[in-house]
Amino acid sequence: MATADRRPLVAGNWKMNGLRKSSSELLRITQDAVKLPRRIDLVVCPPATLVANFSGLVRGSRVRIGAQDCHPEPAGAYTGDISAEMLADAGAVMVIIGHSERRSYHKETDAQVRVKTLAAWRAGMTAMVCIGETRPERESRQTLDVVARQLSGSLPEGARSENLVIAYEPVWAIGTGLTPTPADVAEVAELTLRNSVVYDRFAGTAVLRSEDANALGCLGYVARASGMRTDARLEHPSTVLPVTEIGTAAGDVLARYTVRRDEFAESTELACYLIESHTGPTEYAEALPPTHLPGSGIGIVEGWRGTIVHRVEVDAASRITRAKIVDPSWFNWPALPVAMADTIVPDFPLANKSFNQSYAGNDL
What we know:
Elements: E1 9-13, H1 23-33, E2 41-45, H2 51-57, E3 63-67, H3 84-90, E4 94-97, H4 100-105, H5 110-122, E5 126-131, H6 135-139, H7 143-154, E6 164-168, H8 182-193, H9 196-202, H10 210-216, H11 220-224, H12 232-235, H13 253-276, H14 281-285, E7 295-303, E8 306-314, E9 320-326, H15 335-340, H16 348-354
Helix pairs in contact: 5-7, 7-8
């Protein structure tokens, strides 16, 4: 897998499933892979018995083969275990380490995950280190403590974006039908950012200077993260809540991340205020009296990509006949290659994601 130009990763863990006849399924995956954008890395992690066979089958395709676990030692009297060197020799390029099932069923500790990660690096493979809390830990509000302990104990010195993938999946969401909320994920993402490995990758990466952002006509959080004062809430003030100006001049991935984090908090505060200030649906669901004349109206909100305009037209009976939303998402696209120009070690996927962060309900 390329280390100088990291790309989005889709990895499939087959767990204890698959026989040699499963190669037909793998071939279907390789055939369908050509339909996906070239910037996506694809990894299949079959049982150890299939690594060598599958590695041969995917040769020349987009798909790479990973493993599900490894022993920390390169060789020795460890009956039934498989070393990282053996897996790499069989064709694996990545290995899953510290999966919740290994931590639970085999009682693997953070210290064991750490030495296995070192083993993966020793063999020239990427380590995918898994973290996540159980449902009792979540319900007892131990999530941040658990994830912080796992990050601190599982990641060795020398961890970099080129040799490490951090996979966060709450154990309580696996096979239960429960889904983490954006707040759950944001909470862990904030904690992860405090880890030096992650912070070092964000800070100073893909810097978009204020003069470049201005010349390119950037909008939304990209502009605000590069020191530009552009915000529909300032240009069209409301009396609902005082406007807190959000922004920074750093212009790197970290700046874009923190600006979006602060904007999300501001959006949440506004949503809570609006909900709490209404006594019931009749207060805001009451129909407007017909004007007996056609008309139109414009609503302006500050979205994550910039000022979003909503235009609505109504007929004489006050029925909506046309609605159009103008979202200036394309304005920030030309900024990506400019930001990448001075990045010594290209990290395109991270930089690209920092220009395309999104989630539901993010309008301010």
